[in-house]
Design brief:
Number of helices: 8
Strand content: 15-25%
Strand order of the largest sheet: 3-4-5-6-7-8-9
Structural class: alpha+beta
Distance between the termini: 24 Å
Radius of gyration: 17 Å
Number of strands: 14
CATH topology of the largest domain: Fructose-1,6-Bisphosphatase, Chain A, domain 1
Shape: globular
Helix content: 25-40%
CATH class of the largest domain: Alpha Beta
């Protein structure tokens, strides 16, 4: 099984899907939207792009499984691989004409993410991580920032309605009190990819859905970043917390999150 070939197929599908998404993005007044919950909209653009990605993946890999945000999962048929997809991560931005959104594809096996693709059509940037083969941005190798203190960069902060807002506020407070800065653009997948590219020194979120984070996690790991341990099957079923950062500041971020989210400290990071 050639991971590089599969990754290139995923990139091609993501880029084609983004062209379809752009046809909706350029005409936001004609987008039909509905709400799945607080700050959780879905548009007909999301639905159309996911249908396109599913069909494209299954045309190449008919035995693979597919897990997406907008439609029911498809179980693998004799394959050990599944694709976890988010047709448009950052839908709030997408429907309001803001530029921070992306198309996300991730291939997993029973234990881990193997391929991650995050394509930002506005910036014309494609982040790719391949397990054991490194991480790239537009085919050029990328590495996490070489930092040792929170005051050397900005940390991406994700929101979650599953925790009290004061817990999010506490993480922001602790980061800024340690001389750091915080960043939020409304797309968790892009925020994590920015860690891999060295633009952010870390990214934390108390709960993320699998289609929002798994692709970027493999990109971060392959770029030399540290990610808090998690069980893949549990993440696929119900999502989970994400703490990641450059090696020199990961422990500081983990400590802040443990205190703010009232979580048990993580075991040794993967």
């Amino acid at each position: 099984m050639d991971l590089s070939t599969r990754a290139q197929t995923a990139v091609s599908i993501a880029e084609e899907a983004a062209l379809l998404a752009m046809s909706y993005f350029r005409n936001p007044d004609r987008l039909n939207t509905r709400s799945k919950g607080v700050q959780d909209p879905v548009s007909d653009g999301d639905v159309a792009v996911e249908k396109f990605i599913r069909a494209a993946l299954l045309s190449h890999y008919p035995k693979d499984g597919v897990i997406g945000e907008e439609e029911d999962p498809i179980a693998p048929q004799g394959s050990r691989f599944s694709w976890v997809i988010d047709p448009i991560d950052g839908t709030n931005n997408f429907i309001r004409g803001a530029p921070s959104w992306c198309v996300v594809l991730c291939m997993v096996d029973e234990k881990q993410s193997l391929i991650g693709v995050v394509h930002d059509p506005i910036a014309q940037e494609t982040f790719v991580g391949i397990r054991g083969l490194g991480a790239t941005l537009n085919r050029q190798p990328i590495r996490c920032a070489d930092v040792t203190a929170l005051n050397e960069g900005a940390v991406g902060i994700g929101m979650s309605r599953r925790v009290p807002p004061k817990q999010i506020a506490e993480t922001v407070s602790e980061i800024t009190e340690n001389g750091g800065a915080f960043f939020r653009n409304g797309s968790g997948a892009l925020g994590l990819a920015y860690v891999a590219a060295g633009r952010l020194i870390g990214y934390i979120e108390p709960h993320m859905n699998p289609w929002d984070c798994l692709a970027s996690i493999v990109i971060v790991e392959e770029a030399g970043g540290v990610v808090a341990p998690f069980d893949l099957q549990a993440m696929l079923e119900d999502g989970g917390q994400v703490i990641t950062g450059s090696p020199g500041i990961y422990e500081a971020l983990s400590s802040i999150c443990t205190q703010a989210y009232q979580m048990k400290p993580s075991d040794s990071p993967t």
